[in-house]
Amino acid sequence: MAGGKPAHGAASLLKLIAAAGDDLLLIIVTGKLDRDSSGAEWVRTAQERGAWLALWPPDAARFPDWLQRRVLAAGLELTAEALALLAASTEGNLLAAQQEIDKLLLRFGSGAKLSLPQVAEATSGNARFDVSALSQAIAAGDAVRALKVLAALRAEGEEPVRVLWWLVRALHSEAGVTRTVSMSRLVARAALADRVAKGQAHGEPWDVMALLVAEMCGLRTLPRPRAASLPEPLRA
After folding, report:
1. Residue 230 above 70 pLDDT?
2. CB-CB contact of 2 with 30 (8 Å)
3. Which long-range contacts (CB under 8 A, 24 or more apart) does 152-158 make?
4. What integer is the mean pLDDT of 19-29?
5. Which H or E element spans position 114?
6. pLDDT at position 15, please?
7. Cα separation of 229 and 183, whole Å?
8. Disulfide engineering: 234 pairs with which of 157, 168, 206, 220, CB 3.0-4.6 Å?
9. Largest CA distance in the chain
10. What is the mean pLDDT of residues 18-37?
């Protein structure tokens, strides 16, 4: 039950709880229970008859540590930058994170020590373009080429947060960024893209990233956003 509220099914749920025993194991999986749901009769009855285990997914600040433990448990070792990319690509989706770790294990084997280029290539699938092509176009100040690569990445189903991670990394290093546009302006644009990509602000993340890419190539676009700092989860 995603919302933890069985509504009219509560009576049937109570009967199932009462019938549970050696011949019937009842497992109820719900989303987070609010105060009213936590005090519902079926919840109290389930606690009396069995056990209630609360499992909270790690938040953005704790996600990299969770991911690191999973990587080590799989017998792999990732550099700090490789782990940061994997975290940015899978944040908020524990199943996707585990699937990416399984793919790395299958490809490189237990005991492998993986660098950023290895993880980037392995997690990009069979895309015709990769983020390195985008970085190269930005470094050359070629806005037309950079925007074409960005559009291709979008068409190929690339995750916006993964592309944004590379852009933020370039901003932190200040390498290959045409500096006719102020760094504060670029940082504000990247912060807005991060909020949009995470659903914390309205808009289309790819459109906001297109503005960021254009300005990283030295072009001025729309007025500067209000945000003035880079998002913590994307720091390299």
Report:
1. no
2. yes
3. 152/128, 153/127, 153/129, 154/206, 156/127, 156/128, 156/129, 157/127, 158/124, 158/127, 158/131
4. 89
5. strand 113-114
6. 92
7. 11
8. 168
9. 73
10. 87
Query: How far, in Å, CA of 213 to CA of 207, rounded?
Result: 10
What secondary structure letter does DSSP report for 50?
A: S
Of 53, 123, 65, 59, which is closest to residue 89 (Cα–Cα)? 123
Helix 94-108, helix 116-123: angle, nearest 10: 110
Tell me the mean pLDDT in the region 53-69. 88
Name the DSSP letter for residue 226.
S
Helix (H) or strand (E) holding 85: helix 80-90
Q: Which one, of 106, 75, 93, lies nearest residue 162 by Cα? A: 93
Which residue type, as a one-letter code, is found at position 93?
N
Q: Is the model more confident about 15 or about 170?
A: 15
**Which residues, 6+ apart, have CB-to-CB distance to 58 below 8 Å?**
65, 66
Average pLDDT over residues 185-189: 88
- The pLDDT of residue 52 is 84
The stretch 176-198 carries a mean pLDDT of 83
Number of H helices, E strands in the chain: 12, 2
- pLDDT at residue 228 is higher than 70: no
